[in-house]
Each structure stands twice: as C-alpha cells, then as structure tokens.
C-alpha cells in the first residue's frame, strides 16, 4: 500500500497521536508555526491566519500534512510526500520512497515528542505503506533537525554547499539524510 487513505487513523504512540489534517486544524497550525523559533527554518511561512486557512483548503496540502496531538491538542505537524524513486526506464517501476518533515510547538519541545512522532511516521512508511526509503532535508545550520534525523537512525547522504536560499540568512549549506526499510528493520531487531 502506498496511499495514506487506507491507513488506520490515528497512528498512536505512548504519548501522542497523529492523523490527516483537516481545515479545522488551520488555526492551531498557524499558532505555533508563526513563532520565530519555528518559522525560521520552515520552507514556507504565511503572514496571517487567512493565508494558512487557504492552504488548508488545498486537498494536496492536507494529503501531505498530518497533525500531532497530545491529549487532544494539536502540538505539531508531520509532512509526508510519497514519490517514485529515480530509475532508468528499462528497469521498470521503481519502488517508492517518501520525503518526511516535521514542526513542533516550542511549548512541547524538549520532551522527546518530535522523536516519538518521527519514529512513528517512519514506522508507518516502512510498515503499513510498504515504502523502501525515507529521506529528509534541512539547512545545515538547523542542528535540532539534523540531530533528530540522526537519533531516528537516518544517515547523512549529502552535504550540499550553499545550495539552499534562506529568506534572511542568504545561501546556506544543506543536508540530506535517508534510511532504508531494511536498515530500519535491523535497528528494531537489535533493540528486541
């Protein structure tokens, strides 16, 4: 399965759950994403709640955006974009991969919730969705993001030099991290 439409929602862990976003989540999403410590690293910001509400009207946006809830309160979001892997035409269909991302309300940071949510998202990718690879990108200066990638077992695959234009800092280096399904399975087997 590679469609999130057939997933048993919500996905739950010991302390949180996540589910597909709805238009009703726009205000909560905007409340933490507008904060400077969050918006600094986001690929896109909206100057007001109306702009965010308009994005939540877009079905494609909602299909890729999942809200993280703790005790019924939206505290963050996850991004998931499933795509085909690059392949030569003669090789046939390429097994699918996904780009993932995340943002968390600063009031809920420092508790391991982002780690827990991203692990659950990766588990969904390799489990129920049957993907073979997940990857994530970040500005090299966003140490919190790439450290989280390392904590979930992802490996740095690329360090690009001044390839990403930050809205305030100018051209910055970037990192790409990835993880394969068999690596994930090996890590979880080693924990048992």
TrEMBL record:
Span of domain N-acetyltransferase: 16-182
CDD domains: NAT_SF (cd04301)
UniProt xrefs under SUPFAM superfamilies: Acyl-CoA N-acyltransferases (Nat)
Classification via PROSITE patterns: GNAT
Pfam short name (any one): Acetyltransf_3
Molecular function as annotated in GO: acyltransferase activity, transferring groups other than amino-acyl groups
Alphabetical list of InterPro entries matching this protein: Acyl_CoA_acyltransferase, GNAT_dom, N-acetyltransferase
Gene3D superfamilies named among the record's database cross-references: 3.40.630.30
Designated name of the protein: GNAT family N-acetyltransferase
Taxonomic source organism: Nocardioides islandensis
